[in-house]
Amino acid sequence: ESLDQGLEKTKEGFLGKIARAVAGKSTVDAEVLDNLEEALVSADVGIETTVEIIERIEARVARDKYISTSELNSILQQEIENILVDAPADTTYSNFDLPAGKKPFVLMVVGVNGVGKTTTIGKLAHHFTQAGKKVMLGAADTFRAAAVDQLTIWSDRAGVPIVKREMGSDPASVAFDAVNSAVAKDIDVLIIDTAGRLHTKTHLMEELSKIKRVIQKVIPDAPHDVLLVLDGSTGQNAIEQAKHFTAATDVTGLVITKLDGTAKGGVVLAIAHQFKIPVKFIGVGERVEDLLVFDKHEFADSLFN
Length: 305
Ligand code: GDP
Prior knowledge:
The protein is an alpha/beta fold and about 300 residues long. The chain is built from twelve helices and eight strands. Helix 6 runs parallel beside helix 7 (about 145-160) and helix 8 runs parallel beside helix 9 (about 200-220). The longest helix is centred in the N-terminal third of the chain and has 18 residues, at about 45-65. It binds guanosine-5'-diphosphate (GDP). It is found in: Cell membrane; Cytoplasm.
């Protein structure tokens, strides 16, 4: 399965660290908890999130008096699931379905260059098309010619229309054209790519707000989802980017890519916990099939089993 394969490196690192944390111990005592704390931090789970997990386990130890180290994995798995925020609409994308009554469903995609934004949009276009939806792409990243070219390649591959203009055009006017065209063509889901320059916070904020405003001229409750794409292999950098983007705009979902290339998939926990924004998709490879709808139970399960 592509989830298990994609998380293999993370799982190996994670379980290895936990095994070392409990080595030679039969019960979970203060020393085991210290070791465990170190293990989680070094797996990129993040200090705050680690502390919360440890506190939850401490509370269990205090309550149950005796917890054997062999029980620790399943307890950890449960607490990790508890830590992963509930998606307000966990089922929004299960089987790449879309909520009824929102047509076109407008998905705005944000994130810095190189994180896998274009690839994610291409994968989404593929999956929604496979699920029988009419998809359109909007190339509102008019800053990089390469971005529009790449997106065009993905639109050809998925066989879906793309609305684009020459480089340097006003991103908001491309978004406006795209929304109008999507309405006229009876499109189910419009995916809008945006420029990911971290120029200045105000600049980013203004550009994203302007795009939103023009979309709302046509569809008042759109965009229906604002997905921030983060590269899971970049650890602390991904967290910095999440801070930057959540300060600039209302991010409603996260996509964490490149989890296949890293042993540091623990960052998913840190990000989901710290920002209280649901992780909606994860990327575990370069092929279209390697974009998965995030399921916290499956995720936690594949880390331990
Ligand atoms: P953008 O600049 O954010 O649009 O990034 P791209 O979509 O062009 O992706 C940058 C590179 O990351 C490309 O080589 C992609 O194939 C690769 N990539 C994207 N997502 C994943 C993923 O989940 N796993 C792996 N291994 N590579 C990915």
